[in-house]
Amino acid sequence: MVATQGRHLWIVACETQAWRRQCDTARTHRYFDDVAELDYFSRDELAALIAARTPAGHAGPDAQAIDALHRISRGHPALALFVAERTLRDDTPAIPAPFDEAPLRELERTELLTLAEIAAHGTLTARELRSITEHRHRSSVDRRTYFHELFRLQAELIKLQDWVVHKKLKLVVLFEGRDAAGKGGAIKRITQRLNPRVCRVAALPAPDEREKTQWYFQRYISHLPAGGEIVLFDRSWYNRAGVERVMGFCSDEEYQEFFRAVPEFEKMLVRSGTILVKYWFSVNDDEQNRRFQMRIHDPLKQWKLSPMDMESRRRWEQYTIAKEAMLERTHIPEAPWWVIPPGGKKRARLNCIHHLLSQVPYEEIRREPIELPPRVYNTNYIRHPVPDEMFVPSIY
Questions:
Q1: Which residue has the higher pLDDT, 113 or 341?
Q2: How many structural domains is the chain composed of?
Q3: 104-138: b (≥16 Cβ within 10 Å) or e
Q4: Can you spell out the DSSP letters for 367-393?
Q5: Is the pLDDT of residue 46 over 90?
Q6: Which tens digits make up the pLDDT trace of 285-334?
Q7: Which of 97, 94, 112 minimizes the C-alpha distance to 35?
Q8: How far apart are CA 112 and CA 237, in angstroms?
Q9: Which of 61, 111, 283, 286 is in Cβ range 3.0-4.6 Å of 107 for a Cys bridge?
């Protein structure tokens, strides 16, 4: 992965079940002969990679096998689907045959690859696979529909942003939920097209020793918006009702004091003119397990995992109790909770953005027509050359 800069993620996906077949030309052709061809890798690049990964003392695949591998490697999603289907059907007897490929076709590329890798290494049971694919097949949003709606909603978010700036509004949105519930993905899609000078994300780390001596809400106050700003809190002061309570990072007295103080704190924010919207992203037990497994096996997502995430998975029921108490005791008319139900990340993102737009009445701000002014040319202007050593090397 490091040597190839992540461009050959498919090799990770089929390492155990498919890589061993590469030294057998006939089986290689049979294994990959019906995968669709799409332009993706160069043959020389693939040949070099195969040579680098062939164990010492072993003969690598011949030219015909390399040609076959080059042909199939250009079909990145199809390869992942094919490897997953063959692995599950042929190499895992617990999977009933024939295997239904339709649910797999609903998965994204990276999800397919990771699913194939997990299955190849024997850490995905038949029951878990059925739960994953059947759930995704029922709840997933068609890819074309998803992007059509996402772009439309993001265009509306730009109008909302312009209205917030025009009216000097202060908008705060809290994103809470279990680990891997989809908070970060929703925040990313909201901010993707917005002006970072207007809309910013506050994701605070654990409090340091100085902050632990302060009033609990003090470190959050400095991140609140001024007029014409939007702040999205990726986790917020509700850490005290969740992770701090479950992990024992606060005393019972501090926990009870939080519930006494937080309604008044939020009422003060609303009275000061702040628009406060609170979201809880829900995820069920099986889905969180699947997403954690994907993070464990995906080198591009492993940074999202922490020892605290692993412990939160173990304490699922304690988090449920803490969540129920939090929603019951902090759901107030001035700042109600809005729950995003489980049902796939794409659906959750669209529903969240659509609902957020409904919480702030806004109008489109008409912009003055923009015309590019003519460039000014000066007869005495001389452009001096830039030394070669200052240029970034042209690797690509």
A1: 341
A2: 2
A3: bebbeebbbbbbbbbbbeeebeeebbebbbebbee
A4: PPPP-PPPPP--TT--PPPPPGGGSPP
A5: no
A6: 988 988 888 888 888 888 888 888 889 999 999 999 999 999 999 999 99
A7: 112
A8: 36
A9: 111
Helix axes 307-314, 316-330, angle to 10 degrees: 90
Structure token digits, residue 280? 């809880």
Q: Which of 139, 160, 179 is the last residue of a domain?
A: 139
Q: By residue range, what is the domain housing residue 353?
A: 143-359
Question: What's the token pair of residue 372?
Answer: 């590019």
- Judge if 112 and 240 occupy the same domain: no
Residue 380 burial (10 A CB sphere; 0-12, 13-18, 19+): exposed
Distance CA 394, CA 91 (A): 45
Secondary structure (3-state) at 56: coil
Please count the residues of the chain: 396
CA–CA gap between residue 80 and residue 110 (Å, rounded): 9
Q: Which of 139, 157, 181 is the last residue of a domain?
A: 139
Smallest Cα–Cα separation from 25: which of 56, 76, 57, 59? 59
The answer to whether residues 46 and 176 belong to one domain is: no
In a domain, 244, yes or no: yes
The answer to whether 320 and 309 have CB atoms below 8 angstroms apart is no
Q: How far apart are CA 170 and CA 199, in angstroms?
A: 10
> What is the C-alpha to C-alpha distance for residues 164 and 171, in angstroms, rounded to an integer?
8
Q: What is the mean pLDDT of residues 369-374?
A: 94
**CATH code, domain carrying 338:** 3.40.50.300
Same domain for 246 and 224, yes or no, is: yes
Give the DSSP H/E element, type plus range, for residue 231: strand 229-234
In a shared domain, residues 57 and 189: no
What would the pLDDT profile of 144-162 be if each residue is shown by its tens digit?
A: 899 999 999 999 999 999 9
Residue that the structure tokens 């089986």 belong to? 27
Signed CA dihedral, 136, 142, 147, 148: sign only: negative
Q: What is the CA radius of gyration of the chain?
A: 26
**CB of 191 within 8 A of CB of 232?**
yes
Nearest to 279 by CA among 161, 193, 181, 165: 181
Hey, how many other C-beta atoms are within 10 angstroms of the C-beta on 294?
Answer: 20
Give the pTM.
0.67
Distance of CA 284 to the CA centre of its chain: 17
